[in-house]
Write a structure and sequence with these properties.
Elements: E1 4-10, H1 15-25, E2 31-38, H2 44-49, E3 56-58, H3 67-80, E4 85-88, H4 97-102, E5 107-111, H5 123-130, E6 134-141, E7 151-158, H6 165-188, E8 192-195, E9 198-201
Parallel strand pairs: 1-2, 1-4, 2-3, 4-5
Antiparallel strand pairs: 5-6, 6-7, 8-9
Helix pairs in contact: 1-6
Length: about 210
């Protein structure tokens, strides 16, 4: 069976990207990273990929007149690499309906809260400000809203009394590194069925081919 080709979009340090690579190398994820694309020429994720056999490309948003021109270039790179699943790993650009339509049902994101609580930026700070006792992370399919797509997996992370944004973020990030490869694996194994807002996970015993 051919491995599912994933394309990773990242803007920053690339720790979730590294977790995906580690899961592939450990045999927990039967996939191939076809390309890593960053919109930031200074992104640490590009440095992480240096010397590896994974293609890493910078498509700098500042070099394009419009967002659609930028997204068209990203989409073209993904298509050239035969990408079947687009994985957002700290990608700091909001994708337009144009891009989402091109990869409908084939874009995943991970967010550092238990959605629908605390969407958008600074989710960890939002949780602390609200006095939440539990936070966590959510892997979801991307739709045209802000962190509103169908939820695939979630992992709860307790909020400690003495937590800061940094300490809570670190614990949530550790959970992300486990949860994201698991969700991608379910997609690669064709075990996800989306019905409206609900994502059904098919058990392996249900006769997967």
């Amino acid at each position: 069976m051919n491995k599912t080709v994933i394309g990773v979009l990242a803007s920053g340090r690339g720790s979730n990207m590294q977790a995906i690579v580690d899961a592939i190398e450990a045999g927990r994820l039967d996939a191939k990273v076809g390309v890593v694309i960053s919109d930031n020429p200074e992104a640490n994720v590009l440095k992480r990929m240096a010397g590896s056999d994974i293609p890493a490309v910078c498509i700098d948003r500042r070099q394009f007149v419009s967002r659609q021109d930028f997204e068209a270039a990203v989409a073209e790179e993904l298509n050239v690499r035969h990408v079947e699943l687009v994985v957002l790993a700290g990608f700091m650009r909001i994708l337009s309906p144009y891009f989402i339509d091109r990869f409908a049902g084939k874009i995943m994101n991970i967010h550092p809260s238990l959605l629908p609580a605390f969407p958008g930026e600074n989710a960890q700070q939002q949780a602390l400000n609200y006095g939440a006792k539990v936070s966590g992370c959510t892997v979801h399919f991307v739709d045209e809203g802000m962190d509103t797509g169908p939820i695939i997996l979630q992992e709860a992370v307790p909020v400690q009394e003495d937590d800061t944004v940094e300490t809570l973020s670190d614990r949530i990030l550790h959970a992300e590194h486990i949860l994201y490869p698991r969700a991608i694996a379910l997609y690669c194994e064709k075990r996800l069925i989306v019905e409206g807002r609900r994502v059904h996970i098919i058990e392996k015993s249900e006769g997967l081919q």
